[in-house]
UniProtKB/TrEMBL annotation:
Source organism of the structure: Flavobacterium franklandianum
Protein name: uroporphyrinogen-III C-methyltransferase
UniProt cross-references to InterPro entries, sorted A to Z: 4pyrrol_Mease (IPR000878), 4pyrrol_Methylase_sf (IPR035996), 4pyrrole_Mease_sub1 (IPR014777), 4pyrrole_Mease_sub2 (IPR014776), CobA/CysG_C (IPR006366), Siro_Cobalamin_biosynth (IPR050161), Uropor_MeTrfase_CS (IPR003043)
Gene name tied to this protein: cobA
Ribosomal protein keyword on record: no
Record domain Tetrapyrrole methylase: where: 9-218
Length: 261
């Protein structure tokens, strides 16, 4: 009996927003069993330490204007490695199903009869604002939030941004820095020039950079702080509450420490 028969398996693992401590325990366990790891540009490479040393690590990251592999090539790499080596982990920044094309990869792999599994990740759309003390919803201020891609597959600004600009919801825009001026215009058209804006580059990472302003001033803030991609844009009145929340957090923690002492 041959005990070396390869049993293909693919697990999509959400790597979280950047800070390796925000990887889930289930993600750690999945990596520990991987024979091959295919990882994205937005997945912190420190996380690869959870995979066995002998496992194969393949970078398949994509940045604006610079793709190591096309999506079709990535799909085929996942399948080829699963059939050859068995257990493949596809490590994707944030959550695999939040603008991560995870569903496309799952559909392709399952077309070959390969079992697939998904380990959800902490999405940067909620974790990065939270790390800055920005609560995307707050009673009496924001009843909902939109998470929108700034750049669609045809490289245009999502039409949903114009719809979101008409609402009172908090708006979180991913991959939107190249469309910032268009976004600003849409909100100005709705007379929302004074609406607070936060832009967070490399959120939750040691090299995180932040800029705060309003719809009318954020362009200058970006220039002054040299902000660029990858960054998250947060638009809404909850941004104005940030310092109050930070203050509460510090006071709460210090009181707890004093109580324990």
């Amino acid at each position: 009996m041959n005990n070396n028969i390869v049993k293909p398996k693919v697990t999509l693992v959400g790597a979280g927003p950047g800070d390796p401590d925000l990887l889930t325990l289930k993600g750690v366990k999945a990596l520990a069993e991987a024979n091959v790891v295919l990882y994205d540009a937005l997945a912190n490479e420190e996380i690869l330490a959870y995979a066995p040393k002998k496992s194969i690590k393949i970078f398949v990251g994509k940045r604006k204007g610079c793709h190591e592999y096309s999506q079709d090539q990535i799909n085929q790499l996942i399948v080829d490695n699963a059939l050859t080596y068995g257990n493949v982990v596809r490590l994707k920044g944030g959550d695999p199903f939040i603008f991560g094309r995870g569903s496309e990869e799952i559909e392709y792999v399952e077309g070959f009869g390969i079992p697939t599994f998904v380990v959800p990740g902490i999405s940067s759309s909620i974790a990065v604002p939270a790390n800055q003390g920005i609560s995307l919803t707050k009673r009496g201020i924001s009843e909902s939030f939109w998470v929108i891609t700034g750049t669609t597959s045809d490289r245009n600004l999502s039409k949903d941004v114009a719809l979101a600009a008409k609402s009172t919801a908090t708006v979180v825009i991913l991959m939107g820095m190249s469309k910032l001026e268009q976004i600003i215009t849409l909100f100005q058209n709705e007379s929302k020039g004074e609406t607070p804006v936060a832009i967070v580059q490399n959120g939750t990472m040691p090299n995180e950079k932040v800029g705060f302003g309003t719809i009318d001033t954020i362009s200058q803030v970006v220039k002054d702080n040299n902000l660029s991609s990858p960054a998250i844009i947060v638009i809404g009145e909850v941004v104005r509450e940030r310092n109050k929340l930070k203050g509460f957090h510090k006071e709460f923690i210090s009181n707890k420490v004093c109580a324990r002492e």
